[in-house]
Every structure is written in C-alpha cells, then in structure tokens.
Amino acid sequence: MGAMTSLADDPTVVQRLLDHIDGGTTDVATTTWREPVENYRSEARFAAERDLVLRRYPIAFCPSAALPGPGSYLAREAAGVPLLAVRGSDGRVRTFRNACRHRGTQLASGAGCQKAFVCRYHGWTYGLEGNLRHVPHEHGFPGLDKSTRGLVPVETTESQGLVFVTQETPPVGEAQLDRLPPLIPPGFRLTSTTEGDLPVNWKIFAEGFLEGYHIRSTHAETFYPLQFDNLNVVEAFGRNNRITFPYRAIHKLRTVPSAERSADGKLTYVYHLFPNVMVATFPAKIVMVVLEPLSVDRTRLINYDLTDRDAHDVDAQAFLGRGSALVDLGAAEDREMVCAIQRSLGSGANEFFEFGLFEGAIGHFHRALHALLGA
Ligand code: FES
Ligand SMILES: [Fe+2]
C-alpha cells in the first residue's frame, strides 16, 4: 500500500459540503462494488478474517483515555483472544495475553487501577510490566525461572489517542500508525463504556456506518431532520475511511471566512479504522465503537464514550445527555436494519450485495480486506 493520502482540513471539507448542498450532489466513487453474500456466511471466510487479518493487523483496542494513569488496566477480548492492556509506572501502555502463566486463568476483567495483578486461582502475582513477581509456596515448582514466566506481551502502539494492538507476527499489511490523523485529542476523558451482542456479521454492522445514502429512509425522525440525505464527503486514507455527515447548522458557516470555518458542531466525522473500529465525532463528544466479531453471525458492540466537557458543568452535561439520547435512537434504527440484513443472508434472494457510487467507502473496505486475505 502506498503513502497514506492525507485528509482535507476542516475549511476544505466545509466548502465541499456547501458546494454539494448548492449543487444537489454528493461524493461519488468511480465504480460500484459487488460483495458475494457467501462472504458474510462462510465459516471458512470468517476464520480467515479473524486469523489472517484481525489478529495480524494493528487493531484499535481502546482509547488511551481508558488508561489514564500508572496501573490503569482494561481487559477485553479482541478477535476471540482475551487481552489485558495496562499502563505501566513508566507511563507506557503494554498489552498482554490475559492468561496466567500457571494454568491460564484471566488476571483481570473489565477496567480499573491496580498496583499488581494477582491470579484468583492460586495467587501468582504479576507486576504492571507483566513480570512474574511472586509464586505462593514456590518450592512446589522446583527449578521455576520466574523471569521466563511473565505475562506474554502483544505488540502495542499508542497513536492519536488510541491504543493499537497487533496480536500475531508478522503483521499483515502496514497500518502506518505514525501517520494517522488526529482522532481523540488530549483533554478527552472516558465517560462510559457499554457493550451489547447482536446477531449480525461484523462486516454488515461496519457497512452501516460507512454511507449517508440511508439517512432519510432509515433515520426519518432522528438524524434526517438535523442532517441531509445522501450528502457526504468520503475520503480514504490507507485502508481506512473518513465519511463526513454535515448538519443543517452548517449553513451558519456561509458567513464565516473560509479559513475560520470549524467543523465543531457542524458535522460528524466517522473515521473507519480498518478493519473493525469506528471513531465518530459529535458536539462535545467522541465515540469509539469496536465491532468485536464473536462468530460468523454474532458481533459484540463495544462503545467508548468520551467528552472534553467538565463533569460538573450542568449545562454541558444536559447538552451531552440530549445529544446521546438522539444518537441512541438513531443507533437503534441502524441495529434494526443490519439485523434484518443478517436474517436474509440464507434466503437465497441475493448472491451478492451491490454497493453503489454513494457507498464507495464500503467498496474501499472490501477491496482492502480482499487484498489482505489474498496476500
Ligand atoms: S492459574 Fe493463575 S495461579 Fe494458578
Ligand atoms: Fe445509520
């Protein structure tokens, strides 16, 4: 993959959106994409996606803000493997396979802050850097070299406010994490984490975030009154996408000098971090959505909500609450649609799904996935 194409700045995006509004146009891809329905149903294809891409590509695991200080940890599964991310005393985030080196029990679940990890089963104790510090009744393990039985690390990189993990080496492709655009700026803190499982293939879920062609039809009374139908700027960067959804409030920027036009409160950026993570910007809020594939027809949705507003600012909290209520309603509409697609996969109605010129980011996603699986 060549150099990562850089994304347009806010004034440029705003101008492109205003031009689309005036011209009744939207960004279009050069070609459509046909994805075989079998690729959403096949166990073999799912296993290949999990083993060859999701475990070998740098996956956005959590926001850096989920690990605010030394000892902060977050445990969850990624591509079916239990992982434990920990910020060390040196401020660095390390991620480990969440399995005790005695008999494999998980050392932590959920999130919190600790000075050490003590296995619940027999009490083996590990430091924040994964080192095995203590074994109760150690004489039961003659010859045990504790220095060789630390937690097993997984390659971890922090970039643009996110923690990325690559479980297996050699990695597939190149994610160019050092060249990502700003995603979660410093100053944003985690306000909540929510999880839910849905009976849907992870790629069908991902596709729902990647186009604005469904805004009027699906979100008639939620997003559409505030947004536009089928009016987006669509940009690719590396294997990733950014889809811009303007709000009607963008008209207010017409009287603002071009260089001073800020996206804040005027549009939503949805960053698709290939393959299974979205970062979406809202007024005063950023949401990171992880689509954790559980099986070919089941996906865990993990939402990390972040804000840069003060927790004690009553007005800001009320504003955030109203925004979240609307986003929750819209998200429920999306869930209804993607679950409906899943139910039809075996019906024989479609041999392929055709993504049109307005759905170019989905074509870009599948093209990149096909290329990695074929590699
Ligand atoms: S499994 Fe962890 S101490 Fe035995
Ligand atoms: Fe939607």
Task: Map the helices and strands.
Blueprint: H1 10-23, E1 33-36, H2 38-41, H3 43-54, E2 59-63, E3 72-78, E4 81-87, E5 93-97, E6 110-113, E7 117-118, E8 125-126, E9 132-134, E10 153-159, E11 162-166, E12 189-198, H4 202-207, H5 215-218, E13 233-237, E14 240-246, E15 267-273, E16 277-282, E17 285-295, E18 298-307, H6 314-344, E19 352-355, H7 360-374
Bound molecules: FE2/S2 (inorganic) cluster and fe (ii) ion.
Fe (ii) ion (FE2) is lined by residues 208, 214, 218-219, 334.
**Major sheet: order of its strands?**
2-11-10-5-4-3-6
**Share in helix:** 10-25%
**What class do helices, strands and sheet pairing give?**
alpha+beta
Q: Could you give the distance between the termini?
A: 12 Å
Bound heterogens, unique: FE2/S2 (inorganic) cluster, fe (ii) ion
| Stretches with pLDDT under 50, minimum 5 residues | none
**What is the approximate shape?**
globular
What is the average of the pLDDT values?
96
Provide the β-strand percentage band: 25-35%
Number of helices: 7
Q: Helices and strands, in N-to-C order?
A: HEHHEEEEEEEEEEEHHEEEEEEHEH
Gyration radius, rounded: 22 Å
Query: Largest sheet, described in full?
Result: 7 strands, antiparallel
Number of strands: 19
Index terms:
single chain; 375 residues; alpha+beta; seven-stranded antiparallel beta sheet; 30% strand; globular; binds FE2/S2 (inorganic) cluster; binds fe (ii) ion
Describe what this molecule looks like in 3D:
The strands form 4 sheets. The protein has a 7-stranded antiparallel sheet, with no helix packed on it. Strands 12-18-17-16-15-14-13 form a 7-stranded antiparallel sheet, with helices on both faces. A 3-stranded antiparallel sheet has the order 7-8-9, with no helix packed on it. The chain has 7 helices and 19 strands. The model has no long low-confidence stretch (mean pLDDT about 95). The protein is globular and about 80 Å long. The chain has helices at about 10-25, 40, 45-55, 200-205, 215-220, 315-345, 360-375, and strands at about 35, 60-65, 70-80, 80-85, 95, 110-115, 115-120, 125, 130-135, 155-160, 160-165, 190-200, 235, 240-245, 265-275, 275-280, 285-295, 300-305, 350-355. The longest helix has about 30 residues, at about 315-345. The chain is α+β, with helices and mostly antiparallel strands and about 375 residues long. A hairpin with a 2-residue loop joins strand 17 and strand 18 (about 300-305). Bound molecules: FE2/S2 (inorganic) cluster (FES) and fe (ii) ion. FE2/S2 (inorganic) cluster binds near residues 100, 103, 105 and 123. FE2/S2 (inorganic) cluster binds near residues 100 and 102.
